[in-house]
Amino acid sequence: MMVDFSFSIPQTSLHDSLWGKFNKEDKLQWSRKTIVYVAGYTGNPRASDATALEAHYIKLGYNVWCLDEFFFYMTRYTNAAVLVRDIAGYVGKMLADLTQPGLLDPAKVEMISMSLGAHVMSPADRLDDSDADFVVVVVTNIDGNGMAAPVGHVNFYVNGGEFQVGDIPFIPCGTFCSHMKA
């Protein structure tokens, strides 16, 4: 079951809005492991990658929460990159608040993200291995939108982390294509 963290801001604060959504949700099974999915720039919880991830982890018995930050990201990339810190603050506070009444066990939370979404998981400027007990990074585009530096505990560099194989023979997969292959 997927919980959609909509960022429509009513008269109350964003945090209160998110918390209210959890109080209304009666299908969460707090004893299960939970996946929190954060899409990248232009991603959203109804996209095919998010729904495929949701279906897979539900079959494995997880709760699946998909952050819908689309409203914030649908601006110029530079503005979206600045907003990542604010989004990270809200998500962090919400997850911390859910541990207080004993609902959410932090040891049972795993976070998955793509691209700019990975930085929502970091209180600093960018994702690094101090952000969680175990950080795995898959790099597909260091020549464009990716980072060459190893920032996780484990760093996979698909095809050297550079240009990826295209879907059409003899047509190269450029910067955008390679980044989307993540």
UniProtKB/TrEMBL annotation:
Q: Does the keyword Nucleotidyltransferase apply?
A: no
Spell out the InterPro entries in the cross-references.
AB_hydrolase_fold, Lipase, TAG_lipase
Judging by the UniProt lineage, the source's domain of life is: Eukaryota
Compartments annotated for it: namely:
Secreted
Looking at the record, the residues that make up the Lipase domain are 123-166
Q: Which keywords accompany this UniProt record?
A: Secreted
In its keyword annotation, does this UniProt entry include Secreted? yes
Main localization (coarse): secreted
Q: Which family does the record assign?
A: Belongs to the AB hydrolase superfamily. Lipase family.
Q: Protein name, please?
A: Lipase domain-containing protein
